[in-house]
Amino acid sequence: MNNFFYALPQRLRDNRVFVFLLLVIFVVAGFFGVGKLWRDDSIESWLGEDSPVIRQQRQLEQVFGNNEDLFIIVEARDGDIFSPDSLRAFHRLHNKLQSSRVEIQKDSGSPLGHIREVLSLVNVPVNDVNGDNLYTRPFIGHEVQGRRQALDALREKAIGDPDLRKRFVSVNSRYASITIKTDFGRLSNTTTGREAVADEVLSLTESSLPEILIEDLQAGEPAADDPLKRAPRNYKEYAKFSTAVKGLVEAAAVEPQLSVHYAGLPELVAFHVFIGTENRVIFSGLFLIMTAVLWVLFRHVSVVLWCMSIPLLTLVLTLGVQGWIGLPTSDLTAAMALLLIIISVADAVHIVASYRYYRLAGYKHPQAMAVALSKAGLSCLLTSLTTMVAFLSLYLVKPNMPAAIFGLFTTLGLGLAFLLTVILIPLLLDLWRPTFEISNQTGNVVVKSNHRIFVRLPAFVARRPVLTLLLSMLSGVPIMAGTAFLKVDSNPLESFDKSSYLRQAFDIADRYLGGTQNIDFMVDTGQVDALYDARVLKRMDRLETKMRQRFPDLIAVSVSITDALKKINQQFHNNDPAYYKLPDHDAELSQLLFLFNNVSPEERRKLVGEDFDTARIAFGLKNGGSTQYIELMNAANKWGHEFFIDLKSDYPDLKVVTAGGVVIFMTLFDRITDSQIICFLITLLVVLVTLFFIFRSWKFGLFAIIPNLTPVLVTFGAMGWLGITLNNVTMIIAPIILGIAVDDTIHFVHRLRILLGQGKGVDEAIQETFSEVGKAITYTTLILSAGLLTLLYSSNSQFRAFGYLSALAFFTALLAEFTITPALIKLFFVQKTSLQRNDEQTKEGASHEYTL
Length: 852
Known about the structure:
The chain is of the alpha+beta class. It has helices at residues 2-14, 16-34, 43-47, 52-64, 84-98, 100-106, 148-160, 193-202, 211-219, 235-251, 265-275, 278-298, 301-325, 332-360, 365-397, 401-431, 453-463, 465-480, 501-512, 534-550, 561-571, 586-599, 601-605, 626-642, 661-695, 698-704, 706-722, 733-757, 762-789, 797-840; strands at 69-76, 115-119, 125-130, 133-138, 175-182, 258-263, 517-524, 555-560, 614-621, 655-659. Helix 17 (453-463) crosses helix 29.
């Protein structure tokens, strides 16, 4: 292999025209491929179309619609939303939002066309009883009564109504909410039927759906069990919608009376689109840092330019291949690009550093390039392979499709980066290269480092390996002890900075209103009019009550048909609180349901299916960690089965479907948790095999894994001490750290083996290894760490944590490589050298055979 790399520069030189022509063709094709990229961050892309969770969610949405609603939370600056000034401003804001239909008539392409309904205290329907008659009216209506006494009574009525409290007004009446129902994320055939769906889908870009599905729709003969499809998402449309709504709010001129906050899924998507502009700053800073580090290391424009060309070409080719294949991008694509840029430059740094080393030793350019590539080529290949496996493991275990695509194309990019490095760097240095003060003694490679640390540190380690290991343990073990306090928990809200407007809005919703998360039960009896059976309704009521009693700190509100019926029953009994319950007799219960359907058909549709065979219980949850949600989900699934099992004899097709944001989030979290353990084990196995290949010994390979596990344990220990949990982002650190950290070991030990094989003593070999590769390892670590620290600019706190924790890990890996690795080798080779000196007396030349 070394001979192959030695001969490679000359072979490339002889065919340079063909190589450059081929490169131009591939780069042009890559640019065209980049133009074909498309984005998909839908939940279907994360869990898969056939996921049981997705199917359950679609079953619920097919009956009751989606919940991609925008929530506008208003805070009365005088502390009372029912004060005359605040309520008039609130009323004015509601009317302005309702007037969006006027804007749509003026401009049919207006983003406000996504509004289906605006709902607030002004127009939310409430039921009242007049004698034996039940009727519905808007809670406030079109006019605001100005008398303080009337407004006080209105406040008390709103706070006392369980259907309004926390859903539309806070208990302290300081906050109120306006719900804007949208058509975002709708199921294509929820309301229009299959024939209409075909027309809608065929009007979309054909690339958004598989060709076979389009042909099926064109044929008009769909299978009965075809999965429901969502309309393709246009993420920029969310941002336009958010901007348009905020324009209406500004036009309402309520700022003196009300403070306005925005929450909900549409705003969440829009927020991600807005902060996407941060990537420009992050990548600009990354390139500036890399350029500065390369300049400090090599002090020549040509080297900086050639090294920086590798990650740029890698990025174009990798994204181009993804575009041509047709796989979608996601939020992880930016992370892939960042990692490719900072990792792919490492091999170029090692090869150019080795080239400079031999040029300073007196070698002429062609020979220096050949020797440098023969010395560094194999170690660069091995480091590329181990890092590729770390990312390929994500594809192999497939925790979700975006992560699998991220792993696959990061692996491809790292492979392309290695090929571009060993092919282009020799050719580009032929065109333009720095000049060196060349030693007169060609081949006598004794180049002193300009940095004292590369002289003093190896000398200290060689003299005192035991002390070095002891000091490493004393400094590392206390930090590693923090792993005892490390917790596995993920909180979606904590990814946003506390100062961000979105986090503040969600905090208000959690603390004062109906929460920011949801879990839904859909009781599907499988029989028409089954909801007129009192047994079904009473078990629903029992399930809802049980959930609220068991999780009072997590459940903010709940809504179901039983709540509506209990309230109507109370109203028919002079609002006596004792009658806030389901009637005892089946006939009375059926009559209440009949009345409710007659006077409030739209509200009934939100809770009961058209055929009265399905009903919904919706829980609004406060934001919590995955540990809390796991307990809630386990209880929900258990009780959903237990409470209805005795009805199976009468309703054999009865099933209780659980869906909602919490179910989806926890499914994703479970997949990521399980997959990262497998990824780490796969990466660890490959690292062991690679170390065995270098050392030719399983025993020493296991021994050498110590400095590579050290950064993982130190990072997890620091997380434990700092209270940082293992969440869906920080979990992927371990396999990535291990896959990258071993690169330093491979470069260090590979060069050390060559020197030992030449008959040099251990101390001399360690010293010369530091001199030759120590600086390159240091600077690649600086590039990796500084590059990842650019994530500190991100508004996502989890990405920031990933950045500084990874930087900590890579610096720890560098320290371990400069202390633990040479100390272990020194201790190991003390015995081997002694054995070989005995062998010299009986076997000629044995002193040059170092079996690791």
